[in-house]
Amino acid sequence: MTRRTSVTAPEHLGSTEFRQDYGVRYAYAAGSMFRGIASVELVTRMAQAGLMAFFGTGGLPLETVERSLIVLRGNLVGTGNFGMNLLCNPDRTEREEAAVALFLRYGVRHVEAAGLTEVTPSLVRFRFNGAHRDGTGRAMASRQVLAKVSRLSMARDLLSPPPPHVLESLLAAGHLTPQEADAAGELPVVSDLCAESDSGGHTDRRNPYVLLPEFQRLRDEAMARYGYTKRVRVGAAGGLGTPEAVAAAFVTGADFVVTGSVNQCTPEAGTSDAAKDLLAALDSEDTALASSPELFELGAQVQVVRRNTNFAPRANMLHQLYRRHDSLEAIDPRRARVVQDIWFRQSFDQVWQETQQHVAVSRPRDLERARKNPRHRMALVFGWWFARTARAAVEGNAAHSAEFQIHCGPAMGTFNRCVAGTSLEDWRRRHVDVVAELLMHGAAEVLGNCLAGFHEAHGGRQPFRIA
Ligand SMILES: Cc1cc2nc3c(=O)[nH]c(=O)nc-3n(C[C@H](O)[C@H](O)[C@H](O)COP(=O)(O)O)c2cc1C
Question: For residue 288, how far is its CA from the centre of ligand 1 (angstroms)?
Answer without folding.
Answer: 15
